[in-house]
Design brief:
The protein has 384 residues and is an alpha/beta fold. The chain is 36% helix and 18% strand. The strands form three sheets. The chain has a five-stranded parallel beta sheet, with helices on both faces. Strands 6-7-8-9 form a four-stranded antiparallel beta sheet. A three-stranded antiparallel beta sheet has the order 10-12-11. The longest helix is centred in the last third of the chain and has 20 residues, at 292-311.
Length: 384
C-alpha cells in the first residue's frame, strides 16, 4: 500500500467505517493523495442514532483497524453527535482539505468548510482496478430488503387526506446500494419490520398479499399513527408503482410499470443530497391545513408526474415533481423550513424539480435533473 503524501497539507475524512472493506481503503488512499490523512469516526451511539442500529465493530475496533492502514496518519472517535459530530476534531486538526464521497456529501458540511476556508472535495465511489464495488451495506446480509422513494402524491395514502380528494401515490422500490439514515423518509422503519419478518429477502408469492402482510405487521392493533400503506407496497413491489387511494388505508387499484426505458429514465434523472435525519422533536402534523382544493392539487400533480415519467418527458417530470412537493407543503408546512429552502435554492440552476424525501423535515433532498448532479447520490431501482 502506498504511503500518504507527507507535507504541510492536512486532509480530514469522517464516517462510520464499519466492516472495513476494499471500497473504504480505495477511498482513504485517494484522500491521502491530498496530504496527511486524519480520520474521524462516528461513535457507536452516533451510528445508532443515524442508522437506527449499532455498528458491527465497536468504535475502538474501527479506530484500531483504520490506524493500521499506512495511508492514515491519525484516527479519532468524534466527540459530537449527528452528521456534524466531528466539529471538535475539525478544530483540533485544522485541515486544508475536507474529503467526502457522494454518500457523505451534505450541504451542511460544504457550508461549514466554506466558512472556515477549507477546500471541500467530493469523490466518486471508484473501486481499485480489478476489484468489485464494495459498500458496508452490501456486506450486511439483511440489506437485500429494499427501500422506497415516493415520487409524487405522498400523504394521499392517509385517509385523513384522500377523503378530501382521491388520488395516486407514485413509488419506486430501491435496491439497498446505500444504507439510508434512520428517520429520513425512505421507509426505514417499515423496512426494519420487513427485516424482522423475512430476515434477508422478500419471499416469493403474491406480491400484493405480501405487501398487505407487511402493512399489517407494521401497524399492529392499537397503533395510534398508522404508517401509510405506500411504505409497505413501495418496498415489496419492484419497479414503479401507481397506488390510487380513495379514503381508505389500502389503495383501490395498483398499476405497475417495469418497462426498462422508464426505470432507466428515472435512475438517470434523480440525484439525492443528504440532509441528515429528522430530529426526535420533529412533528410534521403540527399546524396542518388540509382542504379539498389542496388535496386535489396534490392528486393533479401525481397524475401529471405519472404521465411525464411514462412519456420520459424531463421538463414535465421536473414541474410535476416540484408541484407535488409544494402541494404537500401547503397542507403540512413543517415539511420544509427557510434553511431547507436555502439548500434547495443552491440547486435551482441545475435541477428541473425537487422535493424532500418522505414527510420532509430532513432526510434527503431529491432532485430531478438532466443527468446526475456532481457530488450527489444516485439510485438503483429494483427490477422484477
Amino acid at each position: 500500500m502506498a504511503a500518504p503524501v507527507t507535507g504541510t497539507s492536512k486532509v480530514f475524512v469522517t464516517g462510520c467505517f464499519d466492516l472495513l472493506h476494499s471500497g473504504h481503503v480505495a477511498f482513504l488512499r485517494e484522500a491521502a493523495e491530498h496530504g496527511d490523512l486524519y480520520v474521524g469516526i462516528g461513535s457507536d451511539e452516533t451510528v445508532r442514532k443515524l442508522k437506527g442500529r449499532y455498528p458491527v465493530y465497536t468504535q475502538q475496533e474501527r479506530k484500531y483497524l483504520l490506524e493500521s492502514l499506512s495511508c492514515v496518519k491519525e484516527c479519532f472517535v468524534n466527540s459530537g453527535s449527528g452528521i456534524l459530530d466531528f466539529l471538535q476534531e475539525l478544530e483540533t486538526v485544522r485541515p486544508d482539505v475536507f474529503f467526502v464521497n457522494e454518500d457523505g456529501n451534505s450541504p451542511e458540511k460544504e457550508a461549514l468548510c466554506r466558512t472556515r476556508g477549507i477546500r471541500y472535495v467530493v469523490s466518486r465511489r471508484i473501486p481499485h482496478a480489478s476489484l468489485p464495488v464494495r459498500s458496508t451495506t452490501s456486506l450486511r446480509t439483511e440489506c437485500n430488503i429494499p427501500y422506497r422513494i415516493d415520487l409524487a402524491g405522498g400523504w394521499l395514502d392517509q385517509p385523513f387526506v384522500s377523503k378530501f380528494a382521491p388520488g395516486a401515490v407514485l413509488t419506486v422500490s430501491l435496491e439497498p446500494t446505500v444504507e439510508f439514515n434512520d428517520r429520513s423518509g425512505m421507509a426505514t422503519s417499515t423496512r426494519k419490520r420487513a427485516v424482522e419478518l423475512w430476515k434477508t429477502d422478500i419471499p416469493g408469492g403474491d406480491r400484493q398479499q405480501l405487501a398487505k402482510v407487511l402493512f399489517t405487521y407494521d401497524n399492529p392493533p392499537g397503533t395510534q399513527l398508522i404508517s401509510g400503506s405506500q411504505d409497505a407496497i413501495g418496498i415489496v413491489l419492484p419497479g414503479l408503482n401507481r397506488l390510487d387511494y380513495n379514503g381508505e388505508y389500502w389503495p383501490r387499484a395498483i398499476e405497475s410499470c417495469a418497462r426498462e426505458e422508464v426505470l432507466a429514465f428515472i435512475e438517470d434523472h434523480l440525484s439525492l443530497v443528504t440532509l441528515g435525519p429528522r430530529g426526535p422533536e420533529f412533528s410534521v402534523l403540527a399546524d396542518t391545513d388540509i382542504t379539498a382544493d389542496k388535496a386535489r392539487a396534490l392528486a393533479r400533480a401525481a397524475d401529471e408526474c405519472w404521465r411525464a415519467v411514462l412519456d420520459r418527458d424531463l421538463a414535465a417530470f421536473g414541474r410535476s415533481f416540484t408541484a407535488s412537493f409544494r402541494a404537500q407543503v401547503a397542507m403540512f408546512p413543517h415539511m420544509t423550513s427557510p434553511a431547507l429552502d436555502e439548500v434547495i435554492a443552491t440547486y435551482a440552476g441545475r435541477a428541473a424539480g425537487w422535493k424532500l424525501s418522505g414527510a420532509g423535515g430532513g432526510g434527503y433532498l431529491i432532485l430531478v435533473a438532466p443527468g446526475r448532479i456532481p457530488g450527489t447520490m444516485g439510485i438503483k431501482i429494483r427490477r422484477p
